[in-house]
Amino acid sequence: MSKNLSVQRADFDEVMVPNYNPANMIPVKGEGSRVWDQEGKEYVDFAGGIAVNCLGHCHPAMVKALTEQGNKLWHLSNVFTNEPAIRLAQKLTSATFAERVYFANSGAEANEAALKLARRWALDNYGETKNQIISFNKSFHGRTFFTVTVGGQAAYSDGFGPKPGAIEHVDYNDLAALEQLMSEKTCAVIMEPLQGEGGVITPSAEFVKGVRELCDRHNALLIFDEVQTGFGRTGHLYAYEALGVTPDILSTAKALGGGFPIGAMLTTAAIASHLKPGTHGSTYGGNPLACAVAEAVFDVVNTPETLAGVKQREQQFKEALAAINARYNIFKDIRGQGLLIGAELTDAFAGKSRDFLNAAADEGVMVLVAGPNVIRFTPSLIIPEQDIVEGLARFERAVAKLAG
């Protein structure tokens, strides 16, 4: 890595809109679960681009797919279809409940499509009064104005003018509150099968089954936002598989492309029929480059070896974090499923999750937060065992500095 820096972190502040405040260092190279910055410092990556880099950095299968497709065909627009998009859709439908796929560029776009489809389905079948969408407090569904309003964090949607209407929120895991709110006006309930940004919160089995039953009772669609939980993250291809509940619509992104931007909405043929030509679209959705890469990612992720390995790594992480906690007493809870793990800080360290993130980076390990009180780990699904050991040793050094 050259130290002859053509651009520096300070340049960001001169040319970028200030809605981000990135770290002081600039990563320039990644391989597997290791990353190097401009100065040549090495980091163990437990963040995975926020649950995106499911095969780590520069996985050979992804590089091969991108290179081969890059020499064939880059973009067409949806006036035409293409072979990678059809093949990827075939793989997604053969592996899930879904019969139809709509491709987009991100999780927000996949959720936007899901919510628009739910509204159109309800309008066509039941008329204009069936338009209520119910979501859950602390949920996160994207940053478009529709999805950010549906998300359960008002701070993200306040201050931009009048919000889209007929959107309600109740507490996650509170089935009684949902039952009280739902009626024949409800067209859809959208939920994460494991809340990510809201603090890595697992739903009870009774809650998930109850939501499905309430949707059936009121002729409402159940939308699962699996942008963060999907594509192997929990040790299943999609988290719904372990819950005994099947959604009507599912959104997927993040890990779907392993780092290449792509999102998808999955649903049944009957529901999909309500998005007729012209009702919704995306210039880049189904892009041959993105779909070729995602297909390669699918072929690695959707194997018994990879999915079983996620569960093994989960145990390794949780046991090591528990050992750190036994020494420093900083966590009140270590939770999550697969490699979406949240460690909630004790009251003594309340509000300091970002301090731990920064201290970890100083020690050479990348972690995430999920709100002010939870440290989040979303590494590669195939992160080597020795990288977990090394990364957690570095994390413990950061903990020792803050809590020792």
UniProtKB/TrEMBL annotation:
- Record's GO cellular component terms: cytoplasm
Cofactor(s), names only, from the UniProt record: pyridoxal 5'-phosphate
Q: Which UniProt keywords apply?
A: Amino-acid biosynthesis, Aminotransferase, Arginine biosynthesis, Cytoplasm, Pyridoxal phosphate, Transferase
Positions carrying N6-(pyridoxal phosphate)lysine are K254
- CDD domains, A to Z: OAT_like
Main location group: cytoplasm
State the PANTHER family in the record: AMINOTRANSFERASE CLASS III (PTHR11986), SUCCINYLORNITHINE TRANSAMINASE (PTHR11986:SF113)
The UniProt entry's sequence similarity note says: Belongs to the class-III pyridoxal-phosphate-dependent aminotransferase family. ArgD subfamily.
Q: Return the protein name.
A: Acetylornithine aminotransferase
